[in-house]
Known about the structure:
- By secondary structure, the chain is α/β, with parallel strands linked by helices.
- It has a single domain (3-180), classed as Alpha-Beta Barrel (fumarase).
- The chain has helices spanning 12-15, 35-46, 89-94, 108-117, 129-133, 173-180; strands spanning 3-7, 23-32, 59-61, 99-102, 120-123, 136-143, 152-166.
- A five-stranded mixed β-barrel has the order 2-3-4-5-7.
- A hairpin with an 8-residue loop joins strand 6 and strand 7.
- The longest helix has 12 residues, at 35-46.
- It is globular.
- The chain starts with a strand and ends in an 8-residue tail after the last helix.
Amino acid sequence: xxxxxxxxxxxxxxxxxxxxxxxxxxxxxxxxxxxxxxxxxxxxxxxxxxxxxxxxxxxxxxxxxxxxxxxxxxxxxxxxxxxxxxxxxxxxxxxxxxxxxxxxxxxxxxxxxxxxxxxxxxxxxxxxxxxxxxxxxxxxxxxxxxxxxxxxxxxxxxxxxxxxxxxxxxxxxxxxxxxxxxxxxxxx
Length: 188
């Protein structure tokens, strides 16, 4: 397991180097999207409508940032539970999405889609939204402002901390962790 600095948008040469357990620092652009925004994006894809941003090579951060205080770029911007987006994720991966950041594990279907479409899932530490916000240098709403904190934001980040949970090789950090602590009978 290594520490790697990566820049978005992601391409194959970067994704191929990432392995479950690697610590990454992301610099570039992230797009926020939660449940309601995912539903709208998915529906737009089904109707062949223009999407709020080009998915190719991009990373979605499952977060609903709070409003910024005076003199701040953004409020708290912690991760939300990723599994709530699983129903929409394979379609987005097929459109070129290459990374997702959130918390919690992903469904079998999403993990298989990540291998098929060569994408990664990263975890951000829950409960550290104010700390994570320090790595966000610019934030602007680009779609669905009526959703309030669930609107889609375009974030410019520098050294955003995360850990690779699922890589393109089918490895899952959570499963690896469980296996390393599995109870094994002692041999007398």
